[in-house]
């Protein structure tokens, strides 16, 4: 199968691309490298350095003739989306429309779209939130990701473009950016390993649903091969506090450094966990890696990174 992965030099999509290559698929990748890294790219994939808003994206479709698109490229900084919602919308909405127009022109059969559960539902009415939970995002990032979901529905109705939307929880694991505003597992790992004191925003009681990246890759492969069209939450359905995450990382890296606490950042919800029973029922997906095992794997990766930085 010919598959185009957008954002494929980034954290999650590079793992997806790597898995697809290992399964014998023909993979091409587009990424503007604003946050992605060349070293994340699988050697067997064809790479194009291009922004999804660029009209030249059509030339990639002409050259590669993808049958399916896995769409991860996005502006994914929640705090920055509050400060600069126009840029967030330009990339996430405008770029996605440009991508979907290419899909229609070049007879792509299906899009697998990486959306968000953590930023989509707002402050939840009940937890874990399922797909019928009211959509009430508190950040422009959440608004833009949901808007793209609605565009996919419209493209299916008007052009027959099939889709699967995967609403991600807080994903963590090797290759996550330890210098960004999200990805606390990566941030805590590298800071503790390099002797820095991590910051927890809030009092440590904020909760998220954490899922290891390999489990998310599994969901992408299942969605790719599924005959179904629809929207699916992914997650373990378990609330984990910021302080619990910190303490698990602290133990994994063997550090005694304690955190400092700062004010909660704008655009962040207090509590979220996702009910993924629909994905289990219809896609056959269920998480496999528990938090302790996953953080241990992440810590091993960032220990090697810290040794490289300090060398």
Summarize, please.
41% of the residues lie in helices and 17% in strands. The chain has 311 residues and is α/β, with parallel strands linked by helices.
3D architecture notes:
Strand 5 (110-116), helix 5 (140-159) and strand 6 (162-168) form a beta-alpha-beta unit. The longest helix is centred in the first third of the chain and has 21 residues, at 85-105. The strands form four sheets. The chain has a seven-stranded parallel beta sheet with strand order 3-2-1-4-5-6-11, with helices on both faces. Strands 7-10 form a two-stranded parallel ribbon. Strands 8-13 form a two-stranded parallel ribbon. It folds into two domains: 2-171 and 213-233, Rossmann fold, CATH 3.40.50.720; 172-208 and 238-270 and 289-310, UDP-galactose 4-epimerase, domain 1. It has 311 residues and is an alpha/beta fold. 41% of the residues lie in helices and 17% in strands. Helix 6 packs parallel to helix 8 (242-253), helix 6 (184-193) crosses helix 10 and helix 8 packs across helix 10.
Labels describing this entry:
alpha/beta, Rossmann fold, UDP-galactose 4-epimerase, domain 1, two-stranded parallel ribbon, 41% helix, 311 residues, 2 domains, 10 helices, 13 strands, single chain
Helical stretch tally: 10
Number of domains: 2
CATH superfamily of the largest domain: NAD(P)-binding Rossmann-like Domain
Q: State the end-to-end CA separation.
A: 42 Å
Q: Structural class, from helix and strand content?
A: alpha/beta
The best one-word shape is globular
State which percent range the strand residues make up: 15-25%
Q: What does the average pLDDT come to? A: 97
Number of E-state strands: 13
Helix amount: 40-55%
Compute the gyration radius: what is it? Answer: 19 Å
Q: Give the biggest sheet.
A: 7 strands, parallel
CATH class wording of the largest domain: Alpha Beta
Uncertain residue segments:
none
CATH architectural grouping of the largest domain: 3-Layer(aba) Sandwich
Tell me the CATH topology of the largest domain. Answer: Rossmann fold
Q: Which sequence of strands runs across the widest sheet?
A: 3-2-1-4-5-6-11
